[in-house]
């Protein structure tokens, strides 16, 4: 309805900029701007209504899932770190003494965590060698003889790998016995006879010294990220700093492909950068391919490598479970996407050359109001399956998007000389943040820990179930490090299929 940019030629819509169909084309001071003003309020109210209902629904589904689930080891177990040890006792003895004294009616058992980084490397080497051996055995027609070393003798690879695998398994057994005897960490998985007992131990401080007997919820046994326990406190702390620096560098370096992609979407800018392509770009087909398809393809290819990098950085950050690593990686990817695909794309296309805006922060909403409606690229967010636990991240990202929309809208109405609309929009981000604070108080605790009434009710329902005795027996060994379990990859190695010491010895 506006003529702010130029007249629309409806006979040649394919070559017209989409700016003509945005708020940029609405005339300054036009009454039509009040429609956009109303839309901001309507969209905000509608999204907040949907967010509330979704938070409420997912919260109830989490409770319903808990009631219908079978007993799980992580529901009865906590992780305890910072265990104080006296000169005359081991970590295991300290744990048993402490919880027997202060949790006598609910304490069941514990499993001390050992340092198994060296052992884990040996097991990984055995797995790799076993795969090579199976591949050679499944392809008998292949040439299985090779010279070992530069002037070494010619050997049968199957026999060579087989002997090497037996040696590695022997090293694994020796290392397992050494680990079980000496390499204890000051951390242990402590299991209880009830979910409520585990929750009490988790939520209440266990010592007058807050750095000792530090408790946290235990992940599922298969979800434990065992390499974390091989790191010292100082190494973990340094790793966190390294990860922060690495994320910042990755975000900065990623600006290079973003700027290139944004330049490809702008035909006139592309002709300025690469004048020798001017004759090619005049051809409609090549112009559409280069400015339409190529930028999105390049950006998507670069984005594909971001989640694996973020997951690797999160894995060295000190998390105790794979799900926590994925959750941290999800947050990193989210903020990376917000910055590089929204702000960086906008600034590189329209505002990056105007360095003065960074010296005047109050002008940023106005600059965004001009830049955002102007060749924005739609990029879908990566998806993570998290069974509901990641919903608070989704909720917070939506709240952030709403507040950002409000800032952009205020800037737009300021530029369009509709100061009344800008003033009337100021309460909206405040109300949105208050709504978010209410949701955090109302629903977020359910995503952190289950309520006491839910835990007690579930414990009472299962108190008379005969299968619980068998479950408790399995719970005692549920959190044993897989690296300490017996392995067998070599053929005819029945004498090597178990550690030198039995599981009862450690």
Automatic annotation (TrEMBL):
Residues 15-54 form the CSC1/OSCA1-like N-terminal transmembrane domain. It is found in: Membrane. It is a multi-pass membrane protein. Residues 240-375 form the CSC1/OSCA1-like 7TM region domain. One of its GO terms (cellular component) is membrane. It comes from the Eukaryota. Keywords: Calcium, Ion channel, Ion transport, Membrane, Transmembrane, Transmembrane helix, Transport. Pfam families: PHM7_cyt, RSN1_7TM, RSN1_TM. The keyword Glycoprotein does not apply. GO terms for molecular function: calcium-activated cation channel activity. The chain crosses the membrane at residues 32-52, 241-260, 280-303, 333-352, 393-413, 419-439. Residues 75-227 form the CSC1/OSCA1-like cytosolic domain. Belongs to the CSC1 (TC 1.A.17) family. PANTHER family: ERD (EARLY-RESPONSIVE TO DEHYDRATION STRESS) FAMILY PROTEIN, PROBABLE MEMBRANE PROTEIN DUF221-RELATED. This is CSC1/OSCA1-like 7TM region domain-containing protein. It comes from Manihot esculenta. The lineage of its organism: Eukaryota, Viridiplantae, Streptophyta, Embryophyta, Tracheophyta.
């Amino acid at each position: 309805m506006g003529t702010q940019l130029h007249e629309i030629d409806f006979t040649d819509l394919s070559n017209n900029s989409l700016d003509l169909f945005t708020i940029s084309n609405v005339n300054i001071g036009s009454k039509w701007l009040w429609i956009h003003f109303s839309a901001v309020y309507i969209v905000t109210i509608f999204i907040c209504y949907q967010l509330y209902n979704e938070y409420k629904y997912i919260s109830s589904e989490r409770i319903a899932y808990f009631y219908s689930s079978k007993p799980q080891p992580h529901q009865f177990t906590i992780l305890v770190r910072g265990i104080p040890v006296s000169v005359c006792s081991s970590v295991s003895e300290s744990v048993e003494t402490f919880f027997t004294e202060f949790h006598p009616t609910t304490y069941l058992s514990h499993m001390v965590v050992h340092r198994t980084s060296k052992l884990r490397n040996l097991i990984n080497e055995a797995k790799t060698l076993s795969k090579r051996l199976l591949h050679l055995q499944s392809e008998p027609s292949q040439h299985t003889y090779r010279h070992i070393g530069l002037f070494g003798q010619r050997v049968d690879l199957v026999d060579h790998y087989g002997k090497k695998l037996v040696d590695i398994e022997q090293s694994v057994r020796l290392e397992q016995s050494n680990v079980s005897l000496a390499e204890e960490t000051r951390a242990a998985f402590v299991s209880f006879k009830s979910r409520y007992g585990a929750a009490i131990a988790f939520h209440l401080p266990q010592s007058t010294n807050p750095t000792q007997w530090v408790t946290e919820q235990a992940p599922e046994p298969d979800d434990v990220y065992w390499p974390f326990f091989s790191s010292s406190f100082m190494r973990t702390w340094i790793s966190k700093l390294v990860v922060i620096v690495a994320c910042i560098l990755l975000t900065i370096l990623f600006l290079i492909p973003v700027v290139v992609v944004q330049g490809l979407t702008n035909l006139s800018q592309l002709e300025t950068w690469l004048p020798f392509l001017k004759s090619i770009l005049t051809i409609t087909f090549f112009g559409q391919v280069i400015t339409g398809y190529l930028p999105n393809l390049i950006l998507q290819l670069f984005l594909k490598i971001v989640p694996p990098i973020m997951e690797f950085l999160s894995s060295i950050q000190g998390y105790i479970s794979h799900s926590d690593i994925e959750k941290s990686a999800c947050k990193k990817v989210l903020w990376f996407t917000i910055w590089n695909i929204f702000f960086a794309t906008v600034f590189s296309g329209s505002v990056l050359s105007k360095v003065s805006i960074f010296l005047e922060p109050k002008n940023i909403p106005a600059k965004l109001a001009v830049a955002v409606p102007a060749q924005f690229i739609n990029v879908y967010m990566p998806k993570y399956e998290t069974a509901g636990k990641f919903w608070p991240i989704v909720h917070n990202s939506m709240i952030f998007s709403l507040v950002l929309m409000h800032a952009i809208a205020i800037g737009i109405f300021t530029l369009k000389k509709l100061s009344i609309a800008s003033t009337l929009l100021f309460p909206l981000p405040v109300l949105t943040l208050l709504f978010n604070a209410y949701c955090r108080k109302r629903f977020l605790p359910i995503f952190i820990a289950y309520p006491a009434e839910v835990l007690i009710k579930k414990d009472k329902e299962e108190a008379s179930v005969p299968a619980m005795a068998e479950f408790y027996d399995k719970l005692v060994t549920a959190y044993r490090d897989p690296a300490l379990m017996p392995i067998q990859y070599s053929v005819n190695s029945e004498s090597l299929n178990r550690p030198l010491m039995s599981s009862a010895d450690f």
